[in-house]
Amino acid sequence: MNYDERLQHVSVMGAAGKMGSGILLLTAVEMADLSLKPENKGKSFVLNAIDLSDEGLAGLMDYMRAQVLKIAEKKTVWLRSVYAGREDLIENYDIIEQYINDVMRIVRPTTAMEVAYRSTLVFEAVSENKDLKVKLLKQIDQNNPHKTWFFTNTSSVPIHIIENEAGVQGRVLGFHFYNPPAVQKLVELIVTPNTTAEARQFALDYAKAMGKVVVPSNDFAGFIGNGHFMRDALHGINEALELAKNRPLPEAIYMINKVSQDFLVRPMGIFQLIDYVGVDVVQFIMKVMNPHLQNEDLHSDLLDKMMELGVKGGQHSSGAQKDGFLKYEKGAVVAVFDPTKQTYVNITDFQAGCDEYLGKLPEAFVPWKNAVKIKDKDAHFGPYFAAMKTMNTPGAAIALRYGRNSDAIGRKLVADKVAHNEQDVNTVMLTGFFHAYGPINTYFN
Ligand SMILES: NC(=O)c1ccc[n+]([C@@H]2O[C@H](COP(=O)([O-])OP(=O)(O)OC[C@H]3O[C@@H](n4cnc5c(N)ncnc54)[C@H](O)[C@@H]3O)[C@@H](O)[C@H]2O)c1
Question: What is the C-alpha separation between 225 and 428, in angstroms, rounded?
């Protein structure tokens, strides 16, 4: 079965979810483009969008239409060549409308998973629950005569465990998109010792067609991205708890968030990132990873406490940030949660005092949104962190400890053979987490 044939009958499980909807969009466009190739004329292309939620599926189709329109508008030149023989398509909007119809015709929203019994490729993006994933894969596989391939989007479960428990030896791999899949360039690719070379090669070809950057990760819980993020988050939480020995926790959280964003020149502070991903998701991924780790306890009582209090972060369906450790107004942080008083404290109450305590940023400071564009990162960040080392302030000390810890996490991922090399760790953090510089560097020595 060649590439095009493999993509003639595909299913996305969890298609109405955050990840599933993006995977569906990318795959629908790829399949539609294949269907428009002259050699595929007359062949059927079917993409099942499977989800439990009827409501979610209805919203999904609106989302798809709007997104395909944007994609079509960017490739009118190509579309003109594809539809060159169609005399009825004159204006750009005729061509765009035709393309949207061609994409949407492929997509079949349904709550009935039985349609996946005919697929040759299944993307699995249901909730992060190993038993659920295993159950679905097993059921599809037992009823599907095509020896279908499963590409799972799990963030944390080792792929060989899914493979063994579902009994789909050699036909499952981790194809770990980042959120949102349609925008994020990074994909972590995880194979097991059984995964066939053919499935792996297909995954690489598919990723290339999507314009993705593929980083191979070995099959360890959390892989590279969450392997770094979870430990980095735990470090931030513990730094805040340390500071909170001498001051209220909301102030400590504010300060660690500020240091991890401004001093370390990252796109967002660590508590904002935890909120963005979801306190529940972070707690859950740590729980999934923990039993697979040796001499390490990836667990935080503070996350448990937040969950008990129902403060979870995550996003509204509009994409707006929900309140978590931090409270947001129009995207800006305005308050910090106090788990003891179970209320938010306005940052204006303590911001000036905390900023003064942390101290100034080095003079060479360039905010993240400009720093990411700097070509010679070493020439900028080397002197920037060197200057920080000469500053005798709490902010500088916390930032340097943070940077060293991030570097150590990265090196350990290589030493533990989760990542093949240092470059792969850096690529994941630069591409998937939009860091301005790789965690493995020489700045913090
Ligand atoms: N959100 C992220 O940042 C992110 C990033 C990378 C990977 N992931 C992984 O992707 C997967 C999905 O995560 P998400 O954030 O999109 O979750 P989500 O909750 O947004 O979506 C999950 C979807 O699965 C559907 N679902 C649940 N049970 C189902 C079933 N039995 N059959 C069909 N559909 C079912 C739900 O209705 C929902 O629409 C998880 O494994 C997660 O770890 C998430």
Answer: 6
